[in-house]
Structure formats: C-alpha cells, structure tokens
Design goal:
By secondary structure, the protein is of the alpha+beta class. The protein is built from 14 helices and eight strands.
Length: 305
Amino acid sequence: MNILSSLQVKTEAARLGFSACGLAPAAPLPKERAEALHRWLAAGMHGEMGYLERHASLRLDPTLLVPGARTVVSVALNYYPAATPPEGGFRLARYALGLDYHDVVRQRLRALLAAIGAENDGRPCCDTAPVDEHYWAVRCGLGWQGRNGQLIIPGAGSYFFLGELILTRPADHYDEPSAPRCGTCSRCVKACPGGALNGDGTMDARRCLSYLTIEQRGPLPSGTGRLMGRCFYGCDRCSETCPWNRFARPTDVEAFAPRPGLLDMTDEAWLRLSPEEYRTLFKGSAVKRAKYEGLMRNIREAAGF
Ligand code: SF4
Ligand code: SF4
C-alpha cells in the first residue's frame, strides 16, 4: 500500500494556505469522548439538531464513515477578517462575513487530495459529514479544545475553520495530541450571555445565541434580544473574550473578506432589507442557512421589536 508522507501532506497543506495541519491514525474515539457525547445528547443539549443523534455512531468512528480508513488529516483555515461592521450597529459573527466556508474549505481539501495523489483514497469533510472535528484537531496536535468548545491554536487563537481528510492510506508519521492550556481561566464561561458553556468544553446549544439565531426555526425564546448585543447572526462573545485571540491575525483568504456592501449597511438598511437585497448581499454565503425570514426574525429581535 502506498504510504502517505506526513511531511508532504503538511508541506502541501501550508502551500494551500492552511495555517495548521496534523495527522492521526483513524480509529474509534476513546470511550470517555463517546460517553460524553451520549450524556450530552441524553440531556437534550443538542436542541433541534437531530442529525447529531441520528449519526452519533458515525461521528464516533471514522472507519464507519469511510470503510478502510487508516488516517485522519486535520487542517485549520484562518477566517479572522481584517474589517468588521462598526461597533454599536447591527452585525454578524465574523465567520459569516465572507463566502460559505463549507465550499471554500472543501475546495482546498480537494486540492490537497490532488496534491498528495490521494483523489481516490478518501473523503474531504468540513462540517459536511458526521465527524467530531474538534476531537480530531486536538488528536492531530493542532491545539486544544477550550472551555468555549473551540479549537485554540497556540500563538494563533480560535478564528479558524476546521476540515478533515479521512484517508484509506496509512502515513509514515503521526502527531501527538495537544494538551489543554486553558488553565484556571474561565473568562468565556463568565462572558457567555446565555450561560450556555458548561465549563468542560461542552455547551447547551439551546442557550447559545449562535444556535438560536442560525439553527432554531420558529420564534426565539423570550428575552433573546436583550442577550444578543446587536449581533443578529451567530455570536462571537466567547471568542472575543478568550485571551488567546490576542494572537489573531487577519486572514489572507480572499473568500473570507466581508461580502460587498456588508460593511456599509446601517441599522435602518437592515431593518428594511428586502428579499432581493438579501439574495444579493448573501450570494454564496453561509448566512443563507437562516433564510430571509429567519434573518429578519433575528434583526427584529435584536432591535427589540
Ligand atoms: S457563541 Fe455566544 S452564546 Fe454561544 S456559547 Fe459562545 S458566548 Fe455563549
Ligand atoms: S477564555 Fe479562557 S477558558 Fe475560555 S477558551 Fe479561552 S483560555 Fe480557555
């Protein structure tokens, strides 16, 4: 069998603009991680994200997702934007300002597969398949999962999209997992407006503004608007408060630059956004996930209507 060169994979990943890359043997997740997932699901903390429950067994074992899998490659792509909407006005979470990350990351993952000659030897994933991406990023040595649930890369912070290649080829070298470095800090837990963070890296999605403004259909829970702080799509609070994000540097990935017109939007313009303007503004953006009606629901809630 053709063995992957770990050095070649990392060299090509860096050439393609990924900020971090690591490799680990594909194997079922440890018992403790599996038990934690089942406890979390049993407590209903996944809210209406039923797919997490339906595909739990695949999430816990990449060799079920890709039969014959031998290697998981984890990569991180910086999305920290150089410019954001003015303070005090309506705004979106930083990750949502540019083009849809699913497309951007997967395109680069496909290029990585081609560069290492593994087009037919596995599957690229970016939040598009049941993969515990934070577990694999930690296992591949990229960083640790903070109390805010995010992957924190030492010296770089957490404004990264994660992606994986699940490959049917073994590699000549595998990375060691990263150790946690949150220490005694709990700033994100205290800063979370909805009290969603459990303190162990898990969260109660039903209390998270990111979940409520993106995933939840129908009316928002009473009082949500007061917690939103004028951010009507997603929430950056637990990232902004993390001291490791002082290392964040603007991305040079063109696709993650704010969509044309987004930074010029005033509160009034958001409140009278038409379906046509919505389509133009968010063409190719992940914000389309919330649909026009969902976005307007959020904007009205943030405005206190
Ligand atoms: S995204 Fe916002 S609401 Fe969700 S856990 Fe982080 S701080 Fe809390
Ligand atoms: S704010 Fe503190 S506890 Fe939270 S993820 Fe960052 S370092 Fe960890």
